[in-house]
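To the team - S-adenosylmethionine complex, inputs and output below.
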Amino acid sequence: MSNMFDQWNLYSRILANNYMRHRDLSVVLREFLAGLARSCRVVDLGCGDGWMARECLKSTQVRRYVGIDTSADVIARVRACPPTGSDPDNARIDLYCEDVFTALPALPAGEFDLVLSSYCLHHFSQPRKRDVLRQIRRLLTPEGGASSGPTWQGTANRRAICA
Ligand SMILES: C[S@@+](CC[C@H](N)C(=O)[O-])C[C@H]1O[C@@H](n2cnc3c(N)ncnc32)[C@H](O)[C@@H]1O
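Output:
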């Protein structure tokens, strides 16, 4: 593997072939978003190249998408092809090349319908995972939901995972 660009091309093929179950999870998340019946606001922690968000949000009106990743390469990729959903003209896209631990506290409380952290939390120590979960709880609306890796927690279970 010669550089980061090649690695992300390989990773994109892994996702496209559903080897890490991204496609399965995106089906569940699309159902959740359809049930919200409003344009949605999404935070994507460790957003990578944005494949997961594009797939989840493709049939949803996106009011705001916040993508956060420490890699400038992947932020450039999301910028080139952002997850604007079904109404691209009205989607606000904010991309931060930053550590989630500095980016999350700056976001407003209770204003997001979905927090994605697909295959990101495993990078963190246990205490840092707890910090991130507290931040996820702070960001979500009462009806909001969170997903991490191949798992999903919506509405009723939200308080349980974030407690
Ligand atoms: C395995 S990739 C997952 C990408 C994408 N969410 C997905 O499901 O395909 C993990 C991503 O998390 C990012 N990452 C790791 N630690 C981070 C941190 N502390 N803050 C922001 N991003 C981080 C990496 O740069 C990488 O893009």
